Amino acid sequence: MPTIRVSADGGPALETHDVRVRYGDAEAIKGITMEIPRNKVVALIGPSGCGKSTLLRCFNRMNDLVPSASVTGEVLFHGENLYADHVDPVEVRRRIGMVFQKPNPFPKSIYDNVGFGPRLYGRPPDLDDIVERSLRQAALWDEVKDRMDDSALGLSGGQQQRLCIARALAVTPEILLMDEPASALDPIATAKIEELIQQLVEEYTIVIVTHNMQQAARVSHYTAYLYLGELVEYDDTNTIFTAPHEKHTEDYVTGRFG
Amino acid sequence: MSKPAVFEAARRPGGGIPALSGGLGGARSRTAKEAAIGGLLFGSGAVSILTTVGIIVVLVWESLAFFRRVSVSEFLTGTVWTPLFVPQHFGVLPLLVGSVLVSIIAALIAIPLGLGSAIYLSEFSPERLRRFLKPVLEILAGVPSVVYGYFALTFVTPLLRPLIPGLQLFNALSAGIVVGIMVLPLIASLSEDAMNAVPRGLRQGAYALGATKFEVATRVVTPAALSGIVASFVLAISRAIGETMAVVLAAGMTPNLTLDVRQSIQTLTAYIVQVSLGDTPFGSIEYQSIFAVGLLLFAVTLGMNVFGRWFLKRYREEYA
Amino acid sequence: MSAGRYSLEAPAALVARRRRGKVFQYLCLAATLTGVVTLVVLLADVLIEGVAWLTPTFFTEFPSRIPARAGIKSALYGTVWLVGLCALIAFPLGVAAAVWLEEYAKKGWLQTVIQTNIANLAGVPSIVYGILGLAVFVRWMVAFTGGRSVISGALTLSLLVLPILIIASQEAIRAVPGSIREASYGLGATRWQTVRHHVLPNAMPGILTGTILALSRAIGETAPLIMIGALTFIAFVPDGPRDQFTVLSIQIYNWASRPQADFQHLAAAAILVLLVMLLSMNALAIWLRNRYRRER
Questions:
Q1: Which of A96, A196, B184, B236 gives the lowest tally of CB atoms within 10 Å of its CB?
Q2: CA distance, residue A85 to nearest chain B CA (Å)
Q3: Where are the alpha helices (DSSP H) in chain B?
Q4: Which residues of B touch A60 (CB under 8 A)?
Q5: What is the pLDDT of residue B22?
Q6: C130-176 per-position pLDDT tens digit
Q7: A155-191 residue pLDDT tens
Q8: Where are the domain boundaries for CATH 1.10.3720.10 in chain B?
């Protein structure tokens, strides 16, 4: 199966080498080797159950939280394997952040949500600045600056998701992983998130899982098509959606199945 | 959820199918039968209302007789309680303070241990260990009150006496300790339920921000489950106030207005038992004092239970 | 913050956080184990103090002023009588009430009132039930119950365990899948026919489990029975429901409150008997629950 190497400036943000994931006896990811280039948006697409979320969770060791999961292979971050023995997954997750499909703000104030991450490392004296910066980056500052002490649960769905993005950005990760970030949102909120992604990619590397092909086409520079745990094709987005090399890819993106 | 029309049809005799209803005569008797059964079942449900009404009527009726002979202010503010001696005094404060004292000691034991158990079982414990520990805690809750009283008298007090100078044979401390152990499982199981109800997404979000398991447990899950946890405290303290036999055996039956836990005291519940153990003639003031004390006990525990459940309901809605 | 530092090992701050976490974890484990240890110590204490006194005569003799000749015969009979009568009263009442609440009652203020009322009753101290029993069953209904009799005790305890029984039965009934009811109604059955032939049989294991657990609570109750006049020194067994009686828990209290060491041993022996009864009932309930859960 073709695994296309994508050249990037300053080295890739992430490299995977023959990553495999098993849940008990079932193999969910069957040997994937790919590179995530720096400061670009990479979309992972494919039908339900193809393993795109599982692969995403390999990038920040969230699969560790599933007792039956076992991961082999390498995921290199600045040349270091995330799964090496001496690596602490908590440290990994600080550098590689994640936003989830269903917005999951803590039942705390907006300020305390964004400040949660930085507070884990002590009492940063500039917490107010960090919180403001993160909310500005998430395009939420203007809407909440006058009600920072209000409960985060009072925000709309789209606002909550942007809050979760701000919360993830507050610990200054290098890479932002997004697992179907807009699938629970209405079209207007979705458009805001997509706009946000275009802005954030100037500072961060973004990997986004989406089941919405039009969304992948809109926001990503590169797209990887997965099927049943295998990387079928990985190329720049334009190619994938207009002239894919694999027939399988073409069948999927033209909607012949899935 | 409104039932579709087929259920309404089914309630008509024979479900609207003439062949099954045995003709008009059969239909009428079947409706009558159904109605009778429905009435009987409702009656059973109403027994619970009768019970509550009965409790209130009984307590208030005899208390009224009591308060015709003893003023309410003397009852509630008096500091000497000697209904079974001459001269008789009816100040209930020694009993009330006794109950509160034992409950506070019980809370000081049950809250940290119960909450700690809940956090361990919910956030840290491996599954196999949990499957063993949970039933053990349930057994702890199932041990009868008399057995705890025996344990306090024959084990706890002798154990503590060399350590605490001045500890009497009957004392509030031992009583509080065993009552604490008794209500510990209540706090543990209710708090654990509250923590389990915290959505998985919250934990995932916290882990994804680079939090350790300890931080997820203490900074995310416990605060998110706080309403259920606090409600469990209130319900446990209410249970502790209502405890009888363990306190009777461990703390004795000496009404004693004191905060010195080494001394023997009497709680509201222990007094009620004491009167019943003796031969008290019906209609005497000693007999009526049972109901006045019982009314106070009922009011306090009911108040706490209602508050605990209201608190749970109000703050739980935060993210259902 | 992270530029230039590519190591993914735990930095010093994280190591400290992890250490704090471990300490906290062990503290919580200690808290949990305190409960376990206390239970073990309690059981060991009772066992050591009492097992030597579990002679055959212990079960066949009545209480006596002389410890060597004392036994729990009257208490044991009384307990069995009491629980038996209590089961006969509480079971049908409780199941009927649960059926009404789950299958018949319309979601309205009446149902809410009764439901809330039951939840409140479950939290009322047991001694208050004793007061109720004293006034209603022993005094007011003395012509029917015979005063301080087994039936008075059984009625009092039935009221006490009824809320628990109702709540457990409601859960069991609620667990019956709606598809079973729909199938029955669809065939033209009436509401009672559906309940009687489909819902109740399906929910029965859960209901029985709840009943056994409720009755095991009744066995351990002491204060309400003292209140309704179960005497503490009885040298006969009940012949009928209107007879006077005593129960195991009261016998334990009686012996435990005597200063002589021998009576303490007798109390421990009686506790062992009571605990064995409780353990058997709980084991039966758990066995029932597991057996029917597997069959589903």
A1: A196
A2: 18
A3: 5-11, 23-69, 72-77, 93-119, 127-142, 145-151, 157-160, 172-196, 200-208, 213-215, 222-224, 226-242, 245-251, 268-277, 285-316
A4: 208
A5: 45
A6: 999 999 999 889 888 888 889 999 999 999 999 999 999 999 999 99
A7: 999 999 999 999 999 999 999 999 999 998 999 999 9
A8: 93-316
Q: Which of residues B4 and B88 earns the better pLDDT score?
A: B88
Is B154 in contact with C264 (CB distance < 8 Å)? Answer: yes
Q: Chain C closest CA to A255's CA: distance in Å? A: 37
- A120 interfacial to chain B (CB closer than 8 Å): yes
pLDDT of residue B305: 92
Q: Judge whether B259 is closer than 8 Å to chain A, CB to CB.
A: no
Residue A225 is assigned to a structural domain of this protein: yes
> pLDDT digits over C204-217, tens only?
988 999 999 899 99
- Determine which of A66, A93, A130 to mutate to test the interface with B (most B C-beta atoms within 10 Å): A93
C123 and B302 in contact by Cβ < 8 A?
Answer: yes
Is A223 a residue whose pLDDT tops 70? yes
Q: Determine what percent of chain C is predicted with pLDDT higher than 90.
A: 53
The shortest C-alpha distance from B7 to chain C (Å) reads: 6
* Nearest residue of chain B to residue A62 (CA atoms): B208
Distance CA C269, CA B191 (A): 35
- Alpha helices for B78-199 (secondary structure H): 93-119, 127-142, 145-151, 157-160, 172-196
Q: Between chains, do B244 and C105 touch, taking CB under 8 Å as contact?
A: no
Q: What is the mean pLDDT of chain C?
A: 89
- Longest distance between any two alpha carbons in chain C, whole Å: 92
By CA distance, what is B241's nearest residue in C? Answer: C125
CB contact under 8 A, B214 and C25: yes
Q: What's the CA gap between B238 and C124, in Å, rounded?
A: 9
Answer whether B209 sits within 8 Å of A93, measured CB to CB: yes
Quote the pLDDT of residue A4: 45
Residue A11 makes CB contacts below 8 A (sequence gap 6+) with A38
CATH of the domain at A95: 3.40.50.300
Which residues does chain C have within 8 Å of residue A86's beta carbon, measured at their own beta carbons? 8-9
Q: For a pLDDT cut of 70, what percent of chain A falls above it?
A: 96
The nearest CA of chain C is from the CA of B36 a distance in Å of: 10
Residue A24 CB contacts under 8 Å (≥ 6 apart), including other chains: A68
Taking the whole predicted model, whether its pTM rises above 0.90 is answered as no
In a domain, residue A81? The reply is no
d(CA A86, CA A16): 18
B53-84: burial string, b at 16+ Cβ within 10 Å, e else: ebbeebbeebbeebbeebeeeebeebeebebe
Residue A238: domain span: 38-59+89-253
Mutate to test the interface with B, among C2, C131, C174 (most CBs of B within 10 A): C131
B258 is written with which tokens?
Answer: 């004191």
Contacts of residue A25, Cβ cutoff 8 Å, sequence gap at least 6? none
User: What is the CATH topology of the domain spanning B93-316?
Assistant: MetI-like fold (1.10.3720)
Predicted local distance difference test score (pLDDT) of residue B225? 93
**Region of residue C108 (phi > 0: left; psi between -120 and 50: alpha; otherwise: beta):** beta
- A30 within a domain of the structure (yes/no): no
Better pLDDT: C231 or A32: A32
Of B199, B201, B210, the CB nearest to A120: B210
Q: Decide if B205 touches A, using CB distance below 8 A.
A: yes
Residue A216 has pLDDT above 90, yes or no: yes
**Per residue in A93-134, pLDDT tens?**
999 999 999 999 999 999 999 999 999 988 889 999 999 999
Q: Specify if A152 maps to a domain.
A: yes
DSSP assignment letter at B281: P
Interface residue C12 vs chain A (CB under 8 A): no
Task: Report the topology of domain C59-295.
Answer: MetI-like fold (1.10.3720)
